[in-house]
Amino acid sequence: MTSPVAALRPPPPAALAALKAAAGADWTDDAALIAPSLTDWRGKFTGATPLLLLPRDAATVAAIVRVAAEHRVALVPQGGNTGLVGGGIPAADGSAVLLSTRRMNRIRRVDAAGQLLVAESGAILSDVHAAAAAAGLAFPLSLGAKGSATIGGLAATNAGGVQVLRHGTMRALVAGLEAVLPDGSILNQLHGLVKDNSGLDLKQMLIGAEGTLGIITALALKLVPAPAYRAIGWAGVDRPQRALALLARLRQLSGGQVESFELMPADGVALLEQQFGLRPPLAGVHRWQCLVELAGPMPLDDLLAEGLADADDAVIAQSEAQGQALWRLREELPLAERRDGPAVHHDIAVPVADMPDFAESATARVEAAFPGARVMAFGHLGDGNLHFNVRAPAPDALVADRLADESPVAWIAARHQAITALVHDLVAAAGGSISAEHGIGVLKRADLARLGDPARLAAMRAIKRALDPLDIMNPGKIY
Ligand code: FAD
Question: From the CA of 85, how far away is ligand 1's center (Å)?
Answer without folding.
Answer: 9
